[in-house]
Amino acid sequence: MNLSQTNGTAGGSARRDSLLTALLKNLMVTCLCLLINYVNGVQIHTFRKHQELYEDPRYILFIHMVVNDAVQLSTTTALFVLSYTLYRIQVSVCCVFILLAVFTTRNTPLNLAAMALECYVAVCRPLRHAQICTARRTLLLIALIWLLCVTPDVTDLFFTLATEPLSFFHQSVFCLRSNIFKGPVLARKRTAFDVLYFCCVFLTLLFTYLKVLFAARALSTQRTSAQKARKTILLHGAQLFMCLLSYVSPSAEVLLQLIFPGQILEIRFANFLIVYVLPRCLSPIIYGFRDRKF
Q: What is its main location (predicted)?
């Protein structure tokens, strides 16, 4: 296996990384993945140790996001490393990686919306918070989130199974979503679902932020908690923006390649770090480090 293969994020570019560059890039990505997942593991351990967190919807949603981020980061890092070491992998194996990465990526904005709604209820409906936000309802909400995340791309899989011959799944390809789930119809459907999900999440964050903002002004007794919730929702908005980068990054790559035509691999490596690795650092900051109870 040659580590100087084409950069996995380059999607088959003719330019190759040197052996040293490939090693350094893979080492950097792997170390970041291990570091972030170590922090995530500590937070999961903390959650498991304290029984009172099991019944708190806020921390149930938080730990769900932490686990989701850990899976997403591990999957994308594995794909990055495999793109250097194997370059091409079997379609059936690639399907598993791609679907897991897509599910966990789409999961994040919906989880953000759920966490923002919990903040809204805690500040604006404090007397009904215990009644509305129960552990059981939170688990049902998480199940609904996964159903919404899985459904669009499972239909892509069924469409591919119905239209491609069985031999296709035994071929070796460069593991990209567009190489597995082909066709303009599927691409348009994915775009429609992505736009729909992000508009719904954005409107949810905007609604909850404005409600919490007005509550902070009107209720002097709840001002401190409302201000904290408002800052948390703003951070959720920053997370949503970083999630959005994964959908605009292909167009940004094309523009940057026109400006810096000789730096295609560097652009795509930076894009991988900014879009898929660094956003996974935000969850520990928002709750793990800011929250006194946790």
A: membrane
